[in-house]
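Title: Prediction job returns without error message
Component: structure pipeline
Severity: low
Priority: P3
Assignee: unassigned

Description:
Job completed but the reporter wants confirmation the result is attached to the right record. Sequence as submitted:
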Amino acid sequence: MKLNRRDFVRLAAMSVFAQPVLAVLQSVTEVRRFRLELRPEQRNWIPESEMPVDLWGLSDTQLTITQGEPVEIEVVNQLPEPTTLHWHGLRIENAMDGVSGLTQEPIPPGGTFTYRFTPEDAGTFWAHSHHKTYEQLARGLYLPVVVEEKMASDTDQDILMVIDDWRLNNEGQLDTESLGSLHEWAHGGRLGNFLTINKEVQPSFTVKAGSRVRLRLLNTANARIFAVDLPEVPAWILAKDGQPLANLMQVTQTLVMAPAERYDLILDIPRDAEGQLSVTMPTDRAPIEMAYLQVEGLHESKRVQSPNRLPANPIDEISPDQMPDHKVVLDMTGGAMGSMTQAVYNGEQMSMQELIQHKQIWAFNGVANRPLEPLLEARSGELVEIEIINNTGWAHGMHLHGHHFKADLARYNPDLWHDTLLMDSGESARIRFVAGKPGSWLLHCHMIEHQAAGMVSWIKVIG
């Protein structure tokens, strides 16, 4: 997605970071098994501090699996709280979606749960807590997931950059006292003051001059909209939210990413490149250097052709002229500077003052938090259209579980597939998708504090 500098600053409401501390799949019967431990971890981010930063994480820093290959993932909860793992963007069975209280009971401390699925789509995805998410995500409970294509992409190197911000206090520790701040829930959500890539400070990745690099960008922040300026090298968008583009888009401007959005890019490193190439974040002041590509050596072969597109994932195409089987409206209201005066919560009509007592500040169609009845019910294979209207004073990143959709929002190319969509205040968008696997699928804002404070609904798909 591309925005000019003024649009980005308005959307992101940037705070100042401290520097530098800051196809049809082949049948596969063999099952690959993994074990992931959810546990406390520490990071030495501030050299002058004797105390590492206490976070939560997983026993692996990345999960790499293969398209069409069945997996069993045993998740062991070694944390002091119950939790789940949601497999964001993966179109898998609903029972494996990892939503606490909807698709599974949370995994208790000391307990285990085994997720079993076969990834239909290749691409860049992630797993994250979907229980008390506003806190557990802020503590770092997430894992990037790379689903490899059956055929290797036309690249020499694969680099993953997981972008996150953290709220640190004056002691250089995670600011846990501010978790659950009602003021933040009613505004833009929790914004951090410390930037990392792959939970590291300004990491450097070695590349060769003349090489072709696949760069995977993932925004795991609770609420911050990130802007990313790439080095001045030829670059193309290869995929959005895990779904390949039919025609690659050349990158000529700043990439803007809502929480949970992903972009797969191609970067062609010039043969005469040398030294450090910076990946930066623009601000009203000076750009912040996020990470570096360190050029060392020369790639043996010369590339003269433009990059090829990736093989398409097995997703149902949607004709613009096709009439939907279901059409509904999702009206977003509430938040600071909003006009919402009442909403239904837990089946009871409440005034704004009563809602605030329950920390409910936002609503979809006049209902705060997950309603008892779904937004819509559709059969697998039916075409669904949802008109989303942002009648709030804030930007929102709308995420639909278990599906990818097309959208008619001007800042995006209409050919892109999404599982997460950035919508500014006052914007409307029609999203269209084919109802997928049976089950109950969430639709919510991925500014996670907004979800916790009311911005969540669900759809029901029946076989």
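Comment from assignee: result matches the submitted record. The first helix runs from residue 5 to 12.
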